[in-house]
Design goal:
Blueprint lengths: L1 E2 L1 H12 L7 H15 L4 E5 H7 L9 H11 L6 E4 L1
Parallel strand pairs: 1-2, 2-3
Helix pairs in contact: 2-4
Length: 85
């Protein structure tokens, strides 16, 4: 199945519980890796332009979806990413 990042984020919370705000990056990373270890054929759509925008030098407020996108790329989950645009 192919998920939007928003749908994937909510699925992670449904399956593994709320993500700890005090340790958000590490908790999210662990849950993403657990999910894709259990569901290797699933994918998430990530926009190349949205990912580049995060690091273009401008001021950004990072949302939980942005952090999820960053976690997936930095965790090298390439086989679980469907790049668009």
């Amino acid at each position: 199945m192919i998920y939007s990042l928003k749908d994937l984020f909510y699925k992670l919370e449904d399956l593994y519980g709320d993500i700890n705000p005090d340790n958000f990056d590490n908790d999210l990373t662990a849950k993403v890796i657990m999910y894709f270890t259990d569901n290797p054929s699933d994918k998430a759509r990530i926009s190349r332009s949205m990912y580049r925008r995060m690091y273009d030098g401008s001021n950004h407020t990072f949302t939980s979806i942005d952090i999820l996108m960053d976690v997936m790329v930095k965790s090298k989950l390439n086989s679980n990413i469907e790049w668009i645009d």
